[in-house]
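> example.struct
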């Protein structure tokens, strides 16, 4: 089906492309350049205040906040629009206790049994250890699962797609004044069993809540733009 499309200068032009699957017009309003840049600067300022948190307040967080964050995650692009993710949320004290116990078992192996000195050295400035009390203190635990298959069919660019969705999820939480942490004990197969997600792979475990009144974070600095961005103006 062909749809009319209005251009920015008010001239109506017919869309002449033909499709074998449903398409709809996409004509978001085009912002004036300065308005767009102002939004970009404000968005950067918002996200630049975000930090990973390990000390949470037990104060309750409304269920709708989790729903809104997953709504935001669902807007992420994904390979072939397969959206190969599932977010599983719990505030059950019993389930959080079991998740903590299983996570700490894996973390004790990581910190005390595995010979990976470079990785241990890289983590030293964060002062982390096998104690994961935050998994019980934070009012919510949310696990993002990656779906390698859907209805018996393989998904594509699964890791990339789930990673982008998790980024949107984190940004949405921060926009609501909430904090989280990307916790990834290795392996995380215990989450598949505890949460009954057979056939799905745990991707990230998110404790979610408000920062504790006495919360602290490592004094870290983000990579400067000059080290994160290169403009390629021509062939080398």
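> example.seq
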């Amino acid at each position: 089906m062909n749809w009319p499309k209005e251009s920015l200068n008010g001239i109506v032009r017919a869309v002449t492309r033909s499709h074998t699957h449903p398409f709809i017009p996409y004509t978001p309003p085009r912002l004036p350049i300065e308005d767009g840049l102002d939004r970009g600067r404000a968005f950067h300022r918002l996200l630049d205040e975000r930090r990973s948190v390990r000390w949470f307040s037990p104060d309750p967080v409304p269920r709708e906040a989790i729903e809104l964050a997953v709504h935001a995650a669902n807007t992420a692009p994904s390979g072939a629009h397969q959206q190969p993710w599932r977010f599983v949320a719990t505030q059950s004290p019993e389930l959080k206790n079991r998740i903590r116990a299983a996570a700490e078992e894996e973390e004790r192996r990581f910190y005390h049994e595995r010979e990976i000195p470079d990785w241990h050295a890289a983590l030293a400035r964060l002062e982390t250890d096998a104690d994961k009390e935050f998994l019980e203190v934070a009012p919510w635990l949310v696990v993002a699962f990656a779906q390698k298959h859907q209805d018996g069919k393989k998904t594509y660019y699964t890791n990339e797609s789930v990673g982008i969705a998790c980024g949107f999820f984190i940004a949405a939480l921060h926009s609501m004044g909430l904090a989280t942490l990307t916790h990834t004990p290795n392996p995380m197969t215990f989450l598949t069993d505890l949460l009954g997600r057979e056939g799905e792979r745990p991707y990230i475990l998110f404790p979610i809540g408000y920062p504790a009144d006495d919360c602290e974070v490592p004094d870290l600095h983000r990579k400067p733009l000059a080290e994160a961005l290169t403009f390629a103006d021509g062939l080398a």
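> remarks
The chain has a mean pLDDT of 94.
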